[in-house]
Protein 1
Amino acid sequence: MTVGSIKENIKIERRVAITLESAKNIIALGLNINLEKDYATHLGISDKQFEALGVKFYDSSSKVINNSKLLLKVDCPSDEEIKFLKEKTILVGIFNPAKNENKLKEILKKNINIFSLELLPRISRAQSMDVLSSQSNLAGYRSVIESIYEFEKAVPMMMTAAGTVPAAKVLVIGAGVAGLQAIATAKRLGAIVSATDVRAASKEQVESLGGKFLTVEQDENLETTGGYAKEASEEFKKKQTDLLKEAMKKNDIVICTALIPGRPAPRILSEDLVKLMKPGSVIYDLAVEQGGNAAYSEIDKINIVEGIKIVGIKNLMNKLPLTASNLYAKNLFSFIRNLYSKEKKDFIINLEDEIILKTLIKE
């Protein structure tokens, strides 16, 4: 049985699906690996390093695809790559079914099994495969670093002979994996941090990291059984807006991380709320690719409105692709290990396994 992976379009996606460490682990399972020439050279990993582990290289993506039973990707295959996919191939990656519905339907017509790992159930057995958590963790960290760069002022309080520099105030909207990492990173850098989330259960997590939790009094349950946020009612949104009016005036940096799985990102910061911030403030919208939490945020643009910077980056993982690839490749290896039977020397699609059932895309 052979696992293959081809180069991504590095203008769009700099991560890779197989690293040296994961290649070693995959081969230890008894599997072979095929990669496309110059697979990870942009990350400083040469083909020779992979070859030393027993990896085989081909000079084109079509040859890798044709000679692999299971294909690992980061993004959804391109139209050109789809042409080369052969029947009964297993395809694993982050495919965003809501966005790539037509492409995935085209692939399914070829009798190909597609596993999209952002659909993993939130169960303990799936934690090592959880691509959303591993990548969101990094996104939360990097969003703070990027925000501080754009802020162009000191973040921690500094007492000097020339006077005291006050600590910057950071507000994090959405206290999921990315939000909690943003809180932790901003605190480590000396900021005064507060956060808000529709899920009341987030309060304890925020406070454990040293943040102040801004809460909206509510009776409705805004958390799914899987632990994700649900769409809020209009009444809740009004209360949230009232809460944020004061918060926006006081904070220097706002990091938006609120997402609802499979749906557009909730618009939390209106034009009026954005304009309440002081000139020189920064809003970093991690949800921009799904529509954005903040008004004026656009993909891969920094918009300046009344002196306030609104930053939207499509793929923040391209800012730290080696670390992101290392974590992503480990997630994929864990998924492969669950899918592969050493006894039968084959990939077994057992629909009684919740992990396999939930991640398998069907027509």
Protein 2
Amino acid sequence: MSSDNLSPRAASLLRTLVDVHIREGLPIGSKALHVESGMTVSPATIRNVMSDLEERGYLSSPHTSAGRIPTSAGYRLFVDSLLQISPLDEQAIGALREELNPNRPSSDLIQSASALLTQVTSQAGIVTIPRPTTSQLRQIEFLPLSDSRVLVILVVNEREVQNRIIELSRPLSEEQLKQSAEWINQRYAGNDLSRVKSMLIDEMAEARSRIDDHLEAALKLAQEAIEVESPNDEYVVAGESKLLQHARADDMDKLRELFDAFEQKRDLLELLDRCSRAQGVQIFIGEEAGYEVLGDYSVITAPYAQGTQPVGVLGVIGPTRMAYERVIPLVDITARLLTAALSR
């Protein structure tokens, strides 16, 4: 949306009114706007400009008072044409880069990204989890624990490490566990896990027919070890409490509906899927998202990738009166840093 159809005075007053409303969260009257703007015009002139902005749909009067607040259209015009993005300081970027360390497993990076977004933006952070792709077995190790429990260390793809504990149906010595791991690595390393599973089924039947108990035990151990379940969550949300901090008493019903939407997932997943197919930062203000539950909230997202392949989207959800000049670049740089970490 362009501000070309507004006079410089009207554009300046709208920008000032939005800035004040974001800061204070209350309707702004002409006297307060006159002081904030520093314009050498009469309050009557400012009232006329505010009335004109209201007629154009950029402002509204929530109560019978003379104070006005920006509408979704007013925020959209502000974001598209009047916003002055704040440069991020090197300290903030350094902190983000340290948290998104490429030496961490990719699953940890993705899981923690939503909490990181909450920390740096003071909004609710949201990150979609990539759909499972092929997982190639690199190495497996078995470490005996107490009783019949064994710690499985599974390395897949380049550097993804998965740990789980399994219960043995019959005890195996530390040496037997070591030999089993060596045998599995020699036989199956380099194959996709789904192929390894089918190979194990065939070889277990063959071992059983030959009454090879040691081989069957090793195969069964391998089968249990690679049955690593994919996460059921399709996205991670953190910082819902931040939304409570911004909410007023009359916002609570709408906030409960939003929390229900977080749990139901369907609508938000559809919105996030749209964002993942777009380029760069996407901003939905109020009803622009297409869902009534988001009518008083804004969603800012950016896609992240692994190499050149987009794999998900991250972003924040917060009230429409959020600090866009700071949140937008933070979402953008977080997506870029996550992409860089996943791609190394």
Protein 3
Amino acid sequence: MMENPPITSLTIEGEAQWLRLKRQIEWTEGFSLILLFSDQPQVVDVFRRRLADIYKLRVTRLRTPRFERPEQLLTQALPLLLEKLPTPAIVNAPIWLDLTSSTGQDKEWEEARRRFYQRLNENREVLRTRLRPVVIILPAKERFVFRELAPDLWAIRDITLATSAWIPRDDSPVVEKQAPSTDSPKPFSFRQQKAIDEWERVRQRQRGRDVLIVGDRAFKAAYKARQLEVARKISGEMEALARKLVEQVGETPESLRDLSISLNNTASIAKAQGDLEAATRQYGEAVGIYRSLLERFPAMSGLRAELDNVESQYRSVAPR
């Protein structure tokens, strides 16, 4: 009997969250803790296989230990995470520790996971000295349990992902091209031209965040005048620069917000030019980043309104 081929594709939001996970692991130069809460084994399997493929041709392979008995979480899983790395060759070799495979079994596994959370929390400082990314996949229902039993680990985590049903249905409609906007381009007003000129001047002299701020004003000016090719050029440069800044300074609230704004701009142009597939992908990535920011920094001014706006745009282009 032939087995079904493994699932390889994800929904737009799933792809956005995969990219977030992939970026964090690839950009990490030392320790990084990623918590993935899931009751979607197919989604977890797609993430694992994709990450394993990335490391196939590298010296440092993805490590995916599996355990058959609950007591092995303390006798094998914990020592594995805390072991002293013998050579620099395996520094940065990610560990993929899936603790969800036994969620449907007896209470022994549940108790073992709780003890594991507590013991790992007690050894958090040792864990941080092991220079490698650690991805721990946990049962979705134990998110608050983990937070309560391992508060120090929760505080030092880099990413928290909660998966949804991100496997496309067989009957999912194909995203079709939409007719591009027929709005005719208009001449720039004095204020709009001034914004464009300022962007041209600043981008020639600087490569930092100031270019993004000026670029956003120029983009809005070009978009309002329906000068879509000019707006597309600006938004493309903004997105590339925003991604570079995230790589340089890390996933700070400021750098991630700038990237979200840039993605929103590129998606708006794709939508206006009729490319709904690209618009859906870019809006989806922006939504994922905004949700992560809102979870980590709920008091950040204006974040909820920005997320609501991008989610509305995402729903306007995403397949139903």
